[in-house]
Amino acid sequence: MSARRVPLFAVGTGLLLLLLASAAVALALWQPEGLRWRNPGVQRWIQAGSAVLGYLLLIMAGRWHRRDRVARAQGDDDCDDAVLVIHSSQSGHAVQLAQRTAAALQAAGRAASVVAIDALDAARLIRTRRALWIASTTGDGDPPDGALRFIRSVMAQPLSMATLEYGVLALGDRRYPQFCAWGRQLDQWLRERGAQALFERIDVDNADAAALERWHQQLSRLADGDPLDGWQAPPLREWQLVDRRLLNAGSSGAPCFHVALVPVGGGGADWQAGDVFALQLPGDSRVQRDYSIASLPADGAVHLLVRQTRRDDGSLGLGSGWLTQHGAIGDRLPAQIRANPRFHLPDDARPLILIGNGTGLAGLRALLKARIARGHDDNWLLFGERHAAYDVHYRAELMQWQAQGALRQLDLVFSRDGASAEYVQHRLLRDAALLRDRVQRGAAIYVCGSAHGMATGVDEVLRRVLGHDGIEQLIESGRYRRDVY
Ligand SMILES: Cc1cc2nc3c(=O)[nH]c(=O)nc-3n(C[C@H](O)[C@H](O)[C@H](O)COP(=O)(O)O)c2cc1C
Which residues form a coiled coil (predicted)? Predict the structure, then answer.
């Protein structure tokens, strides 16, 4: 039971009892002509007292039963009517929605648990009677990296799922030609295996509120209409712009800024390297913009690396326009931090290969800071931009890390510097021997920056050097992680 409903319930019951007691006292005192108060006798008093007591006991029993159901709902995912909420996510949206979904069902007293598709095996799926899938599409209509093992080891099996009831929430964006392709593929596979759809698949275009409301209504039906207290979106918080610096003065590329924000009203904010800062722009409650966080909580502020973008008509883009120009130092805007578990660091000291371009340095900088804080120095950064003279963001910091041995190898490559022009994927191919050596020593590869051009080029080189199967194994074991856009 939610904390919000207990006081309401108690206040309601208390008011009712107060009303009844006042009526009894009023009747006892109010003695109009011809109407006389007569003691009803012991037997009537006992009957009335028993009725009040019975009413109270009934209410208490209802509360105990409900509290018990909610407690079981939160702790028990193996009971017959438990709902398994499965997320398949590249950058964390589906994870957040899966957590809200399970919290809502649990608050209504339904047993529910959350699992990442990476961790779901055939045995668990066959045991499950009800599953809700929240599946994002990435790349060019591709499943998120974490789904690869599931596709190879579960979807490839001739399983019968006739006893499974399911629903699918497919996340995507209509600007991509293969809209919600992975959610559709999952839905089709489940149907082919005999699973029963609880309701039509719901496709969500770019966090469309109406589609999410349809999902909410279906959850409410699953909970037999009980209120879904846990469904609320994570609260936005006010953040204040405290610093802004142009990092690439003189560059032929669009201006790129270091931006710092702190939460308003004290109280720290918590996040991990790899997480994302999602902001809500003033004047447009629907618009959210995601930026890779470039700092750690120990830095005392969220740092962002923001490229100023312009629309076709020359006006500034909404998010980057506010962060780089319209917002003044001291101005505030609502935002939230979104966990992005697929881009978190490994716990151990294994070698790290960090590859990126442009503003992708933001996510890689946070990862490097976290590695250095842990004393893990086997780090190789391969970063690409346009010109050596203008475009090495955070140059002094990178040089310092290299000098102190925290960054064992630093390769900066430039695409517009005359005869030596190259992209990160070209340098990676030239360094194929180093790449193989590090991967043999257990390295994890992190790629952050532009999806097309950089990330696809890097992926091709990795497959060429390490083999297609080698790359698939790295993805499955979480040793090849991408935060690209
Ligand atoms: C690099 C990239 C590629 C994407 N490709 C597709 C696509 O092919 N089809 C689609 O419908 N949506 C596509 N999307 C949109 C995502 O599915 C959508 O933003 C979703 O909310 C991301 O959820 P996640 O954070 O759980 O990964 C893409 C997004 C990114 C950043």
Answer: none
Residue 1 in this model has a pLDDT that exceeds 50: no
Phi and psi angles of residue 47, each rounded to the nearest 5 degrees, phi first: -65, -45
Tell me the residue length of the chain: 485
Residue 89: CB within 6 Å of ligand 1? yes
By CB atoms closer than 10 A (0-12, 13-18, 19+), residue 65 is: exposed
**Residues 179 and 308 placed together within one structural domain of the fold:** no
Structure tokens at 6: 């207990």
pTM, two decimal places: 0.85
- Note whether 324 and 357 are same-domain residues: no
Query: For the chain, how many structural domains are there in total?
Result: 4
- Whether 139 is in the pocket of ligand 1, judged by its Cβ within 6 Å, is yes
Q: Note the pLDDT of residue 3.
A: 31
Q: Are residues 193 and 243 in the same domain?
A: no
Q: Decide: 96 in ligand 1 pocket, CB within 6 A.
A: no
Where residue 480 sits, what CATH number does that domain have?
3.40.50.80
pLDDT tens per residue across span 417-440: 887 789 999 999 999 999 999 999
pLDDT at 74: 55
